[in-house]
Amino acid sequence: MTSTAPPAPPDTLDIRDLTVVYGRSVRALHEVSLQVPAGGIVALLGANGAGKSTLLRAISGTLSLHAGAIESGSVAFGSLDLTGLPPADIVAAGVVQVPEGRRVFSGLSVEDNLAAGRLGIRGWGRRSEARETAGQVYDLFPVLAERRRQAAGLLSGGEQQMLAMGRALMARPRLLLLDEPSLGLAPQITERIAGIIRQIHDQGTGVLVVEQNAALALELADHACVLDLGRVLLTGPSSELSESDRVRQLYLGDHSGEASDQAPRSEPRALARWAG
Ligand code: ATP
């Protein structure tokens, strides 16, 4: 299937039978297949150690920085095979990751952090394009415009998350990879970040989001995929997964133990937080 299947449509992320190892002893992903349709939004769920970050690393070409490697399978973006490409080429292809933990350059100003998002991009030196893109980022995150000359290290956690997202957007991605965007943020800030992710998606950018906050992820995404010990446990439309007893019990804080496929459905408790 890997070699004979037709290439995916343009801007579709197509992961097929991906197996990833760290060193000789850790097999972190086992034959994982997943698609993010062009302009779609897909959530990746799973407990600690399920392999979510590993999958993002495999897509963004950064596995080798963590002593990991693709053992078999493939990652393609449209007709372009990303497997084995260096990270800069993957960014140039339009696939850009916002790392977990924000990782802004704390000693640099907000605007220099944004400028860093264009390093290595073809045409990055074109000032007009850089200015236009920065303008779009500031429109999306007005607080960054207000603080453009401040050192990034002085921003709040939520603002640093916005800056990390803004820096990724400077590369004009067609697919954005988000690793735990709500990690460590207060619910109000998380809600703002969720709104911004929706806006980015509405502007036509595909999104693959890794989230421990399953309620948030399922509210945001069209489709979701649950990883468990490096394998795909469940996959399907978010609406279906958020009604699945297994997902509700494992990831949405439904400990009633009474849910069954026959039981009358009520709104999952955690999801209700994000409704409206
Ligand atoms: P978390 O939310 O805790 O980050 P995750 O779902 O992102 O979890 P991964 O970080 O991808 O999971 O880890 C998947 C498996 O690979 C785990 O067993 C983990 O211990 C292992 N692993 C991750 N990074 C490395 C590494 N650099 N070297 C060796 N093993 C690793």
Proportion of helical residues: 25-40%
Record field, number of beta strands: 10
Q: Termini, distance in Å?
A: 42 Å
Could you give a short account of the major beta sheet?
A: 6 strands, mixed
User: Which shape, going by the Cα principal axes?
Assistant: globular
| Secondary structure category | alpha/beta
Distinct ligand kinds: adenosine-5'-triphosphate
Whole-number radius of gyration? 19 Å
- Helix tally equals 11
On the 0 to 100 scale, the average pLDDT is 85
**Strand order of the biggest β-sheet:** 6-7-8-3-9-10
Order of helices and strands: EEEHEEHEHHHHEHEHEEHHH
**Strand portion, in percent?**
15-25%
- Low-confidence segments, given as residue ranges, are 258-276
What features would you highlight for this structure?
276 residues; alpha/beta; six-stranded mixed beta sheet; 34% helix; globular; disordered C terminus; binds adenosine-5'-triphosphate
